[in-house]
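User: Could you go from structure to sequence for me? I need the amino acid at each position, not a summary. Structure tokens:
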């Protein structure tokens, strides 16, 4: 195909822009269900925790960060990533008496610094909330004393959502994106995706992106095109 003539108008291809959006992490926007009841109870029991350090375990998007944000707001806790432990001063991190350490990954954090922080929390009456995708019992930890401490931590697990909670999550994620949907769309999507928070987030992102790209409303027709089972 040759180049367009000099007087020929070339129309640019329409691109769907991935616009930023905020997910509310306020307490009133946390969606409760059987899968997260134990974790929510633990967070709301503070400061009457069973130990100075507790851990929330759950898959990506299960609500750990939302619960951590709720607790941080209530306790005045600082929030840091587990991968940043190596560059952290434990006294500075625990200066407010409360600390959230997010996304600890087995074999990918500074064990000596974490061990120091756990000791400081116990000695100074501070609190630490850890989050991770799995419980510490399955982690590879080289520092024996740290491994012993982690094994006895109280752990609250966030499980896969039931049908009602999954639908509520889809509605909330759409609301966060200011994406109007009706029950027909929510039900259709919920019945055709994996029962997980990550799958709900991916599904809503796809609906949003395709509605923008195709300049269409988010309705059952669009959902059917995007989530129709293979061969249907």
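Assistant: Here is the amino acid at each position, in order:
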């Amino acid at each position: 195909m040759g180049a367009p003539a000099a007087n020929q108008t070339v129309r640019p291809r329409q691109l769907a822009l991935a616009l930023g959006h905020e997910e509310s992490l306020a307490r009133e926007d946390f969606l409760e269900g059987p899968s997260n009841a134990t974790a929510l109870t633990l967070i709301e029991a503070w400061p009457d925790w069973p130990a100075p350090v507790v851990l929330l375990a759950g898959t990506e998007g299960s609500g750990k960060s939302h619960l951590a944000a709720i607790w941080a707001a209530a306790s005045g806790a600082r929030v840091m990533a587990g991968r940043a432990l190596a560059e952290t001063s434990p006294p500075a991190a625990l200066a407010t008496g409360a600390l959230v350490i997010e996304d600890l990954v087995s074999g990918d954090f500074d064990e000596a610094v974490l061990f120091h922080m756990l000791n400081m929390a116990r000695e100074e009456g501070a609190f630490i909330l850890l989050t991770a995708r799995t419980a510490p019992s399955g982690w590879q930890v080289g520092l024996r004393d740290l491994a012993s401490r982690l094994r006895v931590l109280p752990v609250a697990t966030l499980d896969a959502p039931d049908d009602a909670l999954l639908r509520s999550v889809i509605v909330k994620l759409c609301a966060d994106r200011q994406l109007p949907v009706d029950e027909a769309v929510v039900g259709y999507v919920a019945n055709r995706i994996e029962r997980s928070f990550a799958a709900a987030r991916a599904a809503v992102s796809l609906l949003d992106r395709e509605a923008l790209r195709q300049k269409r409303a988010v309705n059952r027709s669009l959902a059917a095109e995007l989530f129709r089972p293979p061969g249907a």
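One structural detail worth keeping in mind: The longest strand covers residues 98-104.
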